[in-house]
Request: fold
Amino acid sequence: MRPRFPRLAAVTAALVTAALLTAAPGPASAESNGGVRVMPLGDSITEGTQVPGGYRIGLWQRFGTGNYRVDFVGSQFNGPASLGDHDHQGHPGWRIDQIDANVVTWLRNTNPRTVLLHIGTNDILQNYNVANAPARLSALIDRITATAPNADVFVATIIPLANAGQAAAARTYNAAIPGIVQGKVNAGKRVRLVDMHSALTTADLIDGVHPTATGYDKMAATWYTALRAVPGSIGDPVTSSGRQVVGVPSGRCLDLPGSSTTNGTQLQLWDCHRQPNQSWTHNSSRQLVVLGTKCLDAYGRGTTNGTQVVTWDCHGDTNQQWNVNANGTITNVLSGLCLDAYNFGTGNGTKLVLWACTGQPNQQWTMRVPV
Reply:
């Protein structure tokens, strides 16, 4: 998930880019921002069938807007570049018993603080001993709470189904879930009920089973509301620790022109001010983040002199990782090249590029609290 085309690509190429930026499902290449570990757990609705990333896209965006620092965890990985953390534990076609057979290993490997559980749809679709599905769900919750006793487990009713017979079976299954959850709460377990069924209608389904993009976003909003109601489940909003990145010879700041959120916007020098488009956070993943979700990026994973320095949706690749060095340079992890004010420019609008480190003043930077 990285820039792949020249900046002047035609509209058709841009559409191809959008398609390529969607990662295929597969084993996770674990991403972490050091935040509160949250495991999205379930089936294809967690994975995001029809809309890769599913509800996790909108949920991630809400975390960013709310200044929550969250680390999705799981052995699976998919979704678009705009989803800053692609890890999850969603398995298309899986029933409750199949999740139960593997969940201990997943929990031990990731140690989540919070679990988002939406499961049971395939038990209905496969007509798999549906009468005992609530009992299987209860046993799965017990296994989760026994393995991760300090985790908050959010148990969702399953979303609507379009087929009338299956919809009736889903309603019967859902009707048992509040009592199951209350029983766990009465036993001192950290289990919460989330009414996901009421959040969507069959009009929000793209194929009678999986949500549309709008439907997935409704799921995201419902999860987010539930999480914010439980202190600690996603930590506390992080107070901005943003800094200005100031060019030494110019005294001007690293600036995102017009506060643009368009991927591929090239950075420039500009008179320093206190606006968010000059407020940068160097996080534990070595990303330089602006506006909450945009990262300083070596365009197209470039490693040669003159590579444009742009902003892009944060995705964790090494072309978005930067070392802020004691000698005043800022170097890209992928290329080893220095952040450089092009052609020794010092005026407003001077573009930022990568260049072989020379020790010259146009490659010297300080990070300071906005003044």
Remarks:
- The chain is about 25% helix and 20% strand.
- The domain at 19-228 is CATH 3.40.50.1110 (Rossmann fold).
- The CA atoms of residues 289 and 295 lie 5 Å apart.
- The longest strand covers residues 36-42.
